[in-house]
Every structure is written in structure tokens, then in C-alpha cells.
Design brief:
The protein is 27% helix and 30% strand. The strands form 2 sheets. Strands 1, 2, 3, 4, 5, 6, 7 and 8 form an 8-stranded mixed β-sheet that branches. A two-stranded antiparallel sheet has the order 9-10. The model has no long low-confidence stretch (mean pLDDT 80).
Length: 260
């Protein structure tokens, strides 16, 4: 339950914590969890349970259109709460959702299940997608490592200190800040137990993206000015200047017509 509380702190107001005990077995019957998620308009879930067969058990999953898409069952090997990390390191402090998520381990790229789990972690912990970021604004880093079948999740507060250069050669060093990582928790080691991947048809529907409205089709050689006026460019063949009726030719033809 403490792990759920710490995850709630990381998620902030976007998460809702339920502490009442219920006889729910998501791997056997997911209808109760689907009902709770639909009732609270939730697309992600984190469920904790404990019994003799599977002690310190958590289930992480996500839904699509009110139906369970996929979920992973994991066991907690070791755990250190945010409160304990702050007590051990006085410089640590609590932060909101991570601004940077780092994945370490070849299994996240080679194994299909680990690729799905990586995508689930991204959906669960990310707050918003940022294309560009200023380095000094990074204040919270979440590191997820996979080594020998164990998943290590560590959360750090990032501190920056500006370096002082000795001369012109150290100009870049003076601009680059010195980075320090302070563990803020939670720190948890997980082992995979059971999983339920999405059905192919449901996964295809979940990955479908709506068509973006790109507006009217762009016309070639047509532009619009500041006043929304339309201007166009016309390409013509080379004009024969010998057949062009000039002023002198026009006057000569006019004299001939008057004599006749």
C-alpha cells in the first residue's frame, strides 16, 4: 500500500488512490477492474495484492475503450519509500511527475514483452510530450533498468551547479552546468510473474490514429499575400517577337487600309 501512495505522489492530481480491500483477481476476471476504471474515467491502473502464493504482488495495466488492453503482474523484491530516502539524504526532496525517463537494458529493445512493458511505463509515468527542453529545467529523472530478469526503478532529483572557467579555452566548460543526482524515491526492484498481452485486433484498434485535417490541397504556383489576396504564376511558351504587332507595323497597316 505504501508503494501505491508513493506512486500517487509522483502522479499528482491525475491519479486516484483506493485503499479499501476487495476480493479481485484481475488475471482470472478483469470485469471488476474494468467497472472501477470506467466509473472513474481511468485508462491506466495499478493494483496491489498480497497472499502466500504471490507475496507483495502488483499488477499494472491499461484500458482501451473501457476494455482491458494489456497488463503485467510483478513481484516486489525490495522497496524503499520516498519518506525513507528523504530521511537518509537530507538534500533529497519530493518532486512531481518526471521530466525525463531513461531506460537501460538490451531486453527493452529485443524482447517483445519488455517492449510492451516499456511502452506501458511510458504511458504510466509521462505527463506530457516535450519535443525540446532546456537542460537546467530538468529537475526529476526516472531511471528504469532491466538486468538479469530484474527491473530496477529509481527516482532522482537533479541538481545543477555552474562551473567556473579559467580562461577562453574554458568558455564552454563555464557554460555547461555540473549535474548531480540525489535519490528521492521510490526505489523498487521488480520481477515479472504473469502477463496478458493485447489481442491482435484490439491492439490494432488501439494504435489507430485519427486522420489529421491538413486543410485544402496546396496548389502549385499559387500564394497568398498578407491581405489574403491570391496571386498566381503562369508559365507560357517562348513568344515569337517577329509576329508581335508593334506601333510602326500597326501604323503602316493603317495607312494601307486608308489608301484602299
Amino acid at each position: 500500500l505504501q508503494f501505491l501512495r508513493d506512486v500517487k505522489k509522483l502522479k499528482g492530481e491525475s491519479a486516484k488512490l483506493f485503499t479499501r480491500k476487495n476480493e479481485i483477481r484481475p488475471m482470472e476476471d478483469e470485469t471488476k477492474l474494468e467497472f472501477l476504471c470506467q466509473k472513474n474515467d481511468a485508462g491506466l491502473l495499478l493494483f496491489a495484492s498480497h497472499n502466500k502464493k504471490r507475496p507483495h504482488n502488483i499488477i499494472m495495466g491499461r484500458l482501451y475503450n473501457g476494455q482491458l488492453l494489456d497488463m503485467f503482474e510483478m513481484g516486489i523484491k525490495s522497496y524503499k519509500s520516498i519518506e525513507n530516502c528523504v530521511k537518509e539524504n537530507k538534500a533529497a526532496k519530493t518532486a512531481d511527475s518526471p521530466s525525463f525517463i531513461l531506460f537501460q537494458g538490451d531486453s527493452f529493445e529485443k524482447d517483445l514483452k519488455m517492449q510492451t512493458l516499456k511502452n506501458l511505463f511510458l504511458d504510466f509515468f509521462k505527463a506530457r510530450l516535450i519535443e525540446e527542453i532546456d537542460i537546467p529545467t530538468i529537475d526529476h529523472v526516472l531511471v528504469i533498468s532491466a538486468i538479469d530478469g530484474v527491473i530496477y526503478i529509481r527516482s532522482y532529483v537533479v541538481g545543477f551547479k555552474m562551473k567556473r572557467g579559467n580562461g577562453k579555452s574554458d568558455a564552454f566548460a563555464s557554460r555547461a552546468p555540473k549535474c548531480s543526482l540525489i535519490e528521492m524515491g521510490p526505489a523498487v526492484d521488480l520481477t515479472l510473474r504473469r502477463d496478458r498481452l493485447a489481442a491482435p485486433q484490439l491492439a490494432k484498434l488501439a494504435l489507430r490514429q485519427p486522420k489529421q485535417n491538413k486543410g485544402a490541397k496546396k496548389l502549385k504556383n499559387v500564394t497568398r499575400d498578407v491581405l489574403h489576396g491570391k496571386t498566381g504564376r503562369i508559365h507560357m511558351q517562348k513568344q515569337d517577337m517577329s509576329k508581335l504587332v508593334t506601333r510602326s507595323r500597326f501604323s503602316k497597316s493603317l495607312k494601307r487600309s486608308t489608301k484602299q
